[in-house]
Every structure is written in C-alpha cells, then in structure tokens.
Specification:
The structure holds 2 protein chains of 2 kinds.
Chain A (H helix, E strand, L loop, with lengths): L1 E6 L1 E4 L3 H12 L4 E4 L42 E2 L8 E2 L9 E2 L23 H5 L9 H15 L24 H13 L4 E2 L34 H11 L3 E4 L2 E8 L5 E8 L5 E6 L2 E3 L3 H10 L24 E8 L19 E3 L14 E7 L29 H9 L3 E8 L8 E9 L5 E6 L4 H20 L3 E2 L48 E3 L14 H20 L4
Parallel strand pairs in A: 1-11, 2-3, 2-12, 3-8, 5-18, 12-20
Antiparallel strand pairs in A: 4-6, 7-14, 9-10, 10-11, 13-16, 13-19, 14-15, 15-16, 17-18
Chain B lengths: L8 E5 L18 E5 L11 H12 L5 H14 L14 H11 L1 H22 L8 H11 L10 H18 L3 H7 L14 H7 L5 H6 L21
Helix pairs in contact in B: 2-3, 2-6, 3-4, 4-6
Classes of the chains: A alpha/beta, B mainly alpha.
The structure holds flavin-adenine dinucleotide (FAD) and iron/sulfur cluster (SF4).
The site of flavin-adenine dinucleotide has 39 residues of chain A, from α1, β9, α6 and α9.
Chain lengths: ~575, ~240
C-alpha cells in the first residue's frame, strides 16, 4: 500500500525531537505525516492512566516487570528489552538501550530535568583538546532555548552562572526537608546548590494545560498535562491544526531514495496487520532516537547510498556516547521518627548541584552534576524491605517479628538521602553502533549491534563522583550506606547506555568527511533528509540532553521551512 | 477498594501432617487459617500484553495448599492481626505472596525451598511440620531465625528465608489501604506544596534561606499566566 498523499514532511518518531518537528512544521502550514512505531497515548485517558493510583491497584504493587522495568505504574511502554525487537552487543560491550514504543516516546516518563547546554559545552575541544567542537555555539541555540522555555514551561532560577545559562523560568517549588539537609551539607562542604530546573508547570502558561498539583508522579505521565511530554504538549496541538496525519503502530524500515539520491518517502510496516506501507513525501525528518535514526539510515541502502543513507563518511553510528553516572545513599538519623505530612512535591528533585569545578586541575576532563533524592514517597513494592536495617547504626538488633516492626517502619520512613551523579564522557570514534549482519527483528529489519567501552577519563571521573558523594552525604548528617565501589567496579560507573542519554550517532559538522549532517541537521548526502534527535550532538554535556534536542529540532524545522520557502527543497 | 475482614475470606485448613489431607473438610483438629481475599481483576492502564501476562499469572498454580498455609501462618506471625490497623491476614498477604512469587521468577525457589527447610527443621526439633507443631513451638523456631546477627550455620538458610518472608509481608502490608493508614501516609492527593510546615522546621532546627525563598513560587499567583520581560524576569 502507498499513501496517496505526497506530504511536505514525513517525521519518523514522536519523542522530543519528532514532536517538536511535527508541531513546528504543522504550525508553519506544512502537511506532515508523523510515523510512530508505538500506539497512541494520552495519560488523561483512564484506560492508559497510571497517575494517582494507589499501590494496591496493581496486583504486584508497582513492582517492576520486564514490560515495565521502572515499575508497574511507570508510563513507559517499552524498556530495556522489546519483545521481537532485539539488539546485540560486541563481546567486550555491555551496552544498555532503553526504547519506548508509544506516542511521545521516552518523554512520557522522563525525569523532566531540563538544562541548557552552556557556551563551553559546544566548544569542549577548545577547553581540553579532546574530541571535537560543535560547528555551532551557544549563541546559535540560545534563541531556541528561549522559545522552548516559553512554549513548554520550565521552572528554575536565574543564577548568572557562566556555563549553566539563565532562562525564561517559572518559579521553583520550595525544597523539602531532606533537601534542606542537603543544602546545609553542601554549604558546609563549600559546594554550590540551587533550585533544580524541571519542565513542570508550577504556574499556568496557557489555558490548554493544567498546573502541577504536586503528586511526585511525573514518571507516570501527567493527566493534567502539567509537565512536558511530547505527546501532550506538542503532538496534540499539532494534530489540532488539521495538517498532521499520525501513523501509529507503524515502524519505518528505511528511507526510500530516487535515482538522484534524494529521499522520496519511507517504507514501513503496520505492526497491527503486518502489511507493508509506503509513505511519500518531499522531505524526511528522522527522530527515532539517536540510535533508532542511525539504524534507519544504515538500513536505507541503495545503489547511490551503498553503505546506508548519509553514510558516505562512514560516520553513521560512530561517536555514540552516553552520560556517565554513579550514585550513593545515606541514612540520616536526624530524619528518624519524622512528622508525617504530604511532602510529595513535584516528580523530581527540588534542588541540585551543577558542575562547580570548571577549570580545576583534575585527572579527568569534563564535569558532572548532582541530582538529589529522598523523602516520604508513596510505598510500593520494595517498601518495608530490610525494615529495620538501620538499627545496626543505633546499636540495636536487626530483624524480629511482630507489631514492633510497625514502629521500625515508621521510625525510618523518609530517613534516606541519596545522590546521583550525571557526567560528561568524551565521545570516541571507536564507540559505535552498526548493523548486526546476522540478526533481524520480527519485522525483518536488521538490528543494531553495539560496541562501547569507557575510557580512563570516565573511570577517573567516577572515582571523583564517589568522593564527592561521600563528602556531601556526610556533611548532610548522613551515615553512608553500602560500600564505596573501588577500581574493581570502575568506581560504580554505570554501564554505557544506562543513563539513557545516548547521543552522537549522526553528528553534525562542517566537514562531510567526518560528520553526517550539517549544522542544521541536514544530511550531507541527501538534502531533503534531516535528523532531529540527539544523533546530531557532537558532544553531550553533563546536562541531560532533552532541552537541547527540543531546541535543535525547532532550529532544524525553521531551516526546513526556510529552505522550502526558497524552493531549495 | 476497602479490604477488611468482613469481606470475602479465603480459608485453608491447618491440615495434619497426613499429607494431601488439606482439602478434606473437617478432618483432625479442624483449625483453619483465613485471610481477606484479594481481587483478581485489575485495571490501571495496562497494555494488551500486560493483561495477558497477568491473566496467565492468576491462572497459574505454583504453591501447594500446604505451602500456602505455611505462608499464611508465617505472615501472621510477622504481622499479627491483633492491631487496630489489621495485620497480614487482613491485608490478604497470602494472596499477595502467591502472586508476587509467581510474577518474580527469582522468588520461586527461595520461598519453596525455605518452606521445605522450615518443615524439615520443625520435624527434627518438634516432630511435625511447621504448621502442625503448636504455637509456642512455632514461635520458638521463629525466635531462632528472626534475627540477622545470629551466626549459626545450621540456621543460616532459615534466617535468610525468614528475612525474605518479613520483607514480603511488610511490603505486602504497607502497600494496602490499612498499611498506608498504619504508616500515616498523606500523599497521592492533589495539593499545593508550599514548603515544610513551620513546626517541622522548628523541630529540626532548620530554616529556609530568605534569598532562596524569594525565588520560589508564590502559590497565590500560580493560576496567573506566566509572562516575562526581555531580561528573563517573570513579570506575572
Ligand atoms: C527514565 C528516563 C528518565 C529520563 N530523564 C531525563 C531527564 O530528566 N532529562 C533529560 O533531558 N532527558 C531525560 N531522559 C532522556 C529523554 O527521555 C530522551 O533524551 C528523549 O526522550 C529523546 O528524545 P528522542 O526524540 O530522541 O527519542 P525518543 O523519546 O526515544 O522517541 C523516539 C520515538 O521514535 C519511535 N521509533 C523508533 N524507531 C522507529 C521506527 N523505526 N519507526 C517509527 N518510529 C520509531 C519510538 O517508538 C519512539 O516513540 C530520560 C529517559 C528515561 C528513559
Ligand atoms: S508532580 Fe505535578 S506535573 Fe508531575 S505528574 Fe504530578 S501533578 Fe503532574
């Protein structure tokens, strides 16, 4: 089957990048086909809603499953594994790949941490001589960050920090009790701490979306549409223009190209009835996630593009990189026997510490930020495990049975403080994804094989993270839990992919020999094919990537609109 | 959902050792263990694949009646019902444990093997299965395996198993309505967070830094649409 219509743009994938491209292009009057491998999704639809549910509404009380790895109430349809859609890893690689299959992609359940990259983040090679600079700088992206702030809404504060730029912020919520302990500890340790920056509406931004009612459940997706997800903030309004056709449950195999090497449309499979479908268009915008888009390009083989579309440089899939991560927790005796009140707050931290040692003399190149966790969350599966383990620190016995356990559970409820670090890695040509020559998914599409190893740079950074976390947790009055991981465990460094900030697979650049797209996300090898996800990142700062994906997708869309206006497309 | 004992009860005979006799109504002592039955139908935003999986789990039978009775008796010892907020049996713990063990494959062996260890230990010490010895004898065994600091290689498997059952019992209880009540949990309702209550701050000897507070949301203006000047200052 073939679509009768010739769309102005075919957008592949409906996550952060695809949602933004769809919204912007439709708003500019283009006819858009949005192709999404997963189903339609709206958390306000009661049959899909998991927000505001009590633990007993799930027979497993919110425990994780293979189908919901982050818990039974998490909004993500997808996870570390997808039935019928494997990926493989090279023998020395432990790559993890989180994929969503739903309208809005991974933005339905993401952490909403919304950080701009700073001026240094686009020019890291100038700072430390490693890797490459972006072909663009902060000043190119700033206008788009500004627009994204205003369109989508993000709370935070203007602190005038050199590499953590100010923005058009909504006011942040007040810190919770454990966060006040962290602030006190950070002050003592001489480490800065600021209100966090999350795309959650603490204040009304328009009459279509609700305002946060502080349920701490953003990972379940917000039925009030008070936090950002691509589906509710971008795609519904785009569809409302009447210029967007959404093809859900439709998986793109490849981009089809004509004799001139330019795209003519996409070949897909309808996952419902397993029928082939062809959608025709004047341009194609790939936003299937960094690795997803690389996979489509590598699979788009033709006489003109014999190693895959956009891959004349051999760079598709190369420079794949993820954020680094490490975490630690402590027991705070001062938070024992707490007054119990509703302190849910927003679905994420209210305070954080951005990288504070820029320019310091360290044995690793790039920075990391600290994310703070704790509080009196809603019990779910796992709550009450090792109920009185902290008795160990109080000189009392651990274990027992009977009604006394109730007192233990209450005594230690909300007495934990945790820190998670997220850092910048140095992109490597040798870390990459490629097509596995011998494995296809259930649709017959060759799958990705990952090759990825950390370097000393990331391992040394993790060691520093561990020292920092110990210092801050202790300064906050905490007794450290667990043991400090040493070199045998790479200092607790997370696996590549585990932080779910994978970027860089179709990086942008001015030189077609060493990059896949130009500075607008346009393929060097086919001028009507664009990448609007994190594939174009030359380097992933220690900032979470999504605010930059959104800004660059808007920028790419403006470029497409302009090129069409000038009849170059 | 309001689970309390007046609703459907599930009950199993505390059967005598004469194996397989559990289903024979009215035999031997006739003592029964009963608990609130948990629902088997759920609706909370599931995909088709998830619904299918849960149907299969509910249909699967994994534990024998003897095992279920043992689980019930253990849960009851760990969190008894002689409490205003109910105990494990009021919260349907045996049903929950049965479900979660089927759901989490890695629990199957530890629970089955743990029960077998407990029975073997009870037979050696007191001459009958754990559920068929008398209550003081049962508690005597629990006293030996309930504390994690006991370093007795013979008891080690029992200590591990008891810890697991304590974890499952507490998690199963504190994720029910009674459990949230017992804890005093106040969340999961729409509200407008405006900081830590003053008396709590006072009790902890903490204060908000005034400059920090100045930056935070003025909740009386949350419904006013945000506007900014060109210098990135919020003006509404
Ligand atoms: C638990 C979690 C927490 C996170 N927290 C944060 C955070 O706090 N801050 C932050 O900045 N980032 C965070 N992230 C990362 C963030 O979610 C991603 O950066 C972002 O969603 C990426 O957007 P994307 O458009 O590239 O792709 P995605 O959101 O992954 O969307 C891609 C879409 O493309 C579809 N697709 C894939 N292949 C095909 C195909 N062949 N045909 C058709 N459709 C296809 C998929 O089904 C999917 O819907 C988090 C991620 C997770 C999982
Ligand atoms: S915390 Fe606020 S934004 Fe997040 S899901 Fe709850 S109401 Fe929505």
């Amino acid at each position: 089957m073939s679509s009768s219509e010739q769309y102005d743009a075919i957008v592949v994938g409906s996550g952060a990048g695809g949602g933004m491209a769809t919204w912007r292009l439709a708003q500019a009057g283009l006819r858009v086909a949005l192709v999404e491998a997963g189903p339609w999704y709206d958390p306000a639809d009661d049959s899909q809603r998991t927000q505001f549910r009590y633990p007993w509404e799930s027979p497993r009380r919110g425990a994780s499953t293979r189908l919901r790895p982050f818990g039974d109430f998490n909004a993500c349809i997808g996870g570390w594994e997808l039935d019928g859609e494997p990926f493989t890893t090279a023998p020395d690689t432990d790559f993890m790949w989180w994929r969503a299959r739903m309208l809005g992609g991974r933005t339905n359940h993401w952490g909403r941490i919304s950080l701009r990259f700073g001026p240094l983040d686009f020019k890291r090679s100038d700072v430390d001589g490693l890797g490459d600079n972006w072909p663009i700088g902060y000043e190119d992206v700033k206008p788009y960050y500004d627009q994204v702030d205003k369109l989508i809404g993000v709370f935070g504060t203007n602190e005038g920090l050199p590499n953590d730029p100010d923005g058009y912020f909504l006011p942040p919520p007040k810190p919770r009790l454990h966060e006040l302990y962290y602030i006190r500890g950070a002050r003592k340790a001489g480490v800065p701490v600021y209100p966090s920056r999350l795309s959650i509406l603490t204040k009304r931004i328009n009459n279509d979306r609700g305002i946060c009612v502080y349920c701490r459940q953003c990972s379940r997706a917000c039925a009030l549409h008070a936090d950002f997800s691509s589906s509710m903030v971008l795609i519904y309004p785009a569809v409302a223009t009447g210029r967007v056709d959404v093809f859900t449950n439709t998986m793109v195999r490849k981009v089809d190209t004509g004799a001139d090497g330019r795209a003519t449309g996409v070949s897909c499979i309808d996952r419902g009835n397993r029928r082939e479908l062809r959608i025709n268009g004047r341009s194609v915008v790939l936003a299937a996630s960094a690795c997803g888009s690389a996979r489509i390009l590598l699979n788009s083989i033709s006489a003109r593009h014999s190693s895959g579309l956009g891959n004349s440089s051999g760079h598709v899939g190369r420079y794949l990189h993820d954020s680094t991560g490490a975490s630690r927790a402590a027991f705070l005796p001062e938070l024992m026997d707490r007054d119990i009140y509703n302190e849910d707050g927003v679905g994420g931290m209210h305070v954080y510490t951005p990288w504070w040692l820029e320019g310091a003399n360290l044995d690793f190149a790039r920075g990391y930020h600290l994310e703070i966790g704790g509080g009196m969350g809603m019990p779910s599966y796992g709550f009450g495990f090792a109920a009185n383990q902290y008795n160990e620190f109080l000189g009392q016995r651990v274990g027992g049975y009977g009604n006394g356990l109730r007192d233990d559970v209450r005594r230690f409820y909300g007495s934990r403080l945790s820190i998670a670090c997220r850092g910048e890695s140095v992109p490597q040509y040798g870390n990459y994804c490629e097509l596995d020559p011998s494995v296809v998914d259930e649709w017959g599409i060759p799958v990705l094989r990952f090759n990825y190893r950390w370097t000393d740079q990331e391992i040394n950074q993790a060691r520093h993270m561990q020292d920092t976390m110990e210092e801050l947790l202790e300064a906050s009055g905490g007794i450290l839990l667990g043991s400090k991981p040493g070199p045998e465990r790479q200092y607790g460094l997370t696996q590549p992919g585990e932080i779910i900030h994978e970027v860089g697979t179709t990086r942008m650049g001015d030189d077609p020999a060493t990059s896949v797209t130009n500075r607008y996300g346009q393929l060097h090898d086919a001028d009507n094919v664009f990448v609007a996800d994190a594939g174009t990142f030359v380097s992933q700062a220690d900032k979470n990537p999504t605010w930059t994906i959104l800004s660059l997708a808007w920028r790419t869309s403006d470029y497409i609109i302009e090129q069409m206006r000038q009849r170059n497309l | 959902m309001n689970m309390n004992r007046r609703e459907t009860l599930k009950s199993l005979l505390l059967a005598p050792l004469a194996a397989g006799a559990a289903a024979t109504a009215g035999c031997a002592s006739g003592a029964r263990v009963s608990w609130t039955e948990l629902p088997r139908e759920y609706s909370y935003g599931r995909t088709e694949a998830e619904q299918q999986r849960d149907r299969e789990l509910f249909a699967e039978s994994w534990f024998s009646e003897h095992e279920l009775v043992t689980i019930a008796v253990l849960c009851d010892i760990i969190l008894p019902s002689d409490h205003a907020n109910g105990g494990a049996l009021d919260a349907g713990l045996p049903d929950f444990v049965e479900f979660i063990v089927k759901d989490r494959e890695n629990l199957k062996l530890p629970v089955r093997g743990g029960i077998a260890w407990l029975d073997s230990y009870a037979v050696n010490e007191f001459g009958a299965d754990f559920v068929n010895i008398d209550e003081p004898q049962r508690l005597a065994i629990c006293d030996r395996i309930a504390w994690t600091d006991v370093e007795d290689p013979v008891l080690r498997p029992g200590i591990r198993f008891f810890s697991l059952m304590r974890d499952l019992t507490l998690t199963g209880y504190y994720t029910t309505e009674q459990g949230l009540l017992d804890l005093g949990y106040q969340g999961n309702v729409a509200n407008v967070w405006d900081g830590v209550p003053a008396e709590v701050l006072a009790r902890h000897g903490l204060q908000y830094e005034p400059e920090w507070l100045d930056k935070c949301v003025d909740q009386s203006r949350r419904d006013i649409i945000a506007t900014w000047d060109d210098e990135m200052n919020l003006t509404s």
